[in-house]
Amino acid sequence: MAPQAVWAQRLDIVMVTIAVTDAKDVTVDFAKDKLTFKGTVNDKEEAITIELSKEINEQESSWVNTQREVQIKLKKASEEWWDTLPKKKMPTVKVDWSRWKDEDELNGTEETPDFGGMPGGMNMEAMQAMGGMGGMGGMGGMDMGAMGGMNMEEMMKNMGGGALPDSDDEEPPAPSA
Question: CB–CB of 15/101 below 8 Å?
């Protein structure tokens, strides 16, 4: 059975999303004019081959299995706008309007989504094998006073805030007459 695929583009890449949840044994193969996806979903083989309307750079194309979907980033062989993704009309391939941008909508500063992981593809099993890469969390046990070399008074002067207020253990200056 052929899964649903949606696509959008930028000047240099095409983003393809294959709608498969919890896909296992995923393979994505790139040829200069073809994209092939295979995987197992609920013990059934899912596959789709798309003959591309233009050529891609296979070495710079990539994919990632997010367990919710398979995201593919195709690097275009030449920077140009494609009229369509498949060479021939395919009922399971549609435009991804949520990601679509027209040529005239781009101002050159838009970031390309991090779509498709690392070059050559990396699936979630490989990501999980890397182990827990926890975030900062609560910065457990970090002693902020141990941040040697940090002079708050000097930092405030450099920020234009002047010196830090003096502590209250001294007498205030006498009012001038």
Answer: no
- State the pairing for strand pair 93-95/5-9: parallel
Burial profile 28-55: b = 16 or more Cβ within 10 angstroms, e = fewer: bebeeeebebebebeeeebebebebebe
- Residue 125 phi, psi dihedral angles, 5° rounding: -60, -40
Q: Is 158 left (phi over 0), alpha (psi -120 to 50) or beta?
A: alpha
Question: How far is Cα 91 from Cα 71, in angstroms, rounded to an integer?
Answer: 19
Contact 57, 45 (CB under 8 A): no
> Which residue type does 161 have?
G
Q: What is the DSSP letter of 141?
A: T
Instruction: In whole angstroms, give the CA distance from residue 46 to residue 27.
Output: 11
- Model pLDDT for residues 79-109, shown as the tens digit of each residue: 999 999 999 999 999 999 999 887 777 665 5
Measure Cα distances from 172 to 151, 163, 164 in Å.
25, 16, 15
Burial-class residue 4 by CB neighbours within 10 Å (0-12, 13-18, 19+): middle
